[in-house]
Structure formats: C-alpha cells, structure tokens
Write a structure and sequence with these properties.
- It contains four helices and no strands.
- It is mainly α.
- The chain starts with a helix and ends in a 12-residue tail after the last helix.
C-alpha cells in the first residue's frame, strides 16, 4: 500500500468520524453532553499537565443559562415555545364526528 493511499484513507476516516459526531450531537444532545461532562472531569483532574486540564475545561458542556424563554431543556422545567395562535388567545374551534 502506498503512502498516498494510506493518507487518503486516514483523511476520509477522519471526515466520516467528524460527520458522525456532528450528527450524534444534533440528534442526541443530552447524551453527548453527558459524554462531554465525563471526559471533562477525566481530563480536569489534579495532577494532569496544564494543557490537559485546559483541554478538559474546554470540553465542558455549556451550562443552563437560567432563562426559561430560550427553550434549552437542560433543567427540564421549560418546554418548547407555544405557537403564535396560543399566545394571542384566539384559537379556532374544530368539531370532529365520532367514528363508530
């Protein structure tokens, strides 16, 4: 196997891995936040070199802002924003017949 082919496979592997991590981050944010928090704790332990601890601090996931209107869902208390029709109070009435 030539060196250029090996480099090509390595680059393609890194691109696929990065794409998979981005998709996982979009589809399962709470899972990846837990993974990032665990990795941050592992790298931020005392006795590690300064650059490893700095890397651990950088991996730390964002904390809840405390603003309930942003819909971050980190604390579980806030949900999605209501639709615009629910905010004005005017909702159309819809009748449905019973199916037997």
């Amino acid at each position: 196997m030539s060196t250029s082919l090996l480099v090509q496979y390595a680059v393609i592997g890194l691109v696929v891995l990065a794409s998979a991590l981005i998709v996982l981050r979009k589809l399962a944010p709470s899972l990846t936040n837990r993974w990032l928090a665990a990795a941050s704790i592992h790298f931020s332990r005392s006795g590690r070199t300064a650059w490893v601890r700095a890397f651990g601090q950088r991996l730390q996931p964002k904390q809840a802002t405390g603003n309930c209107s942003d819909g971050c869902s980190t604390c579980g208390a806030c949900g999605p924003k209501p639709p615009a029709a629910a905010q004005t109070g005017a909702m159309p009435l819809e009748f449905r017949s019973r199916a037997k």
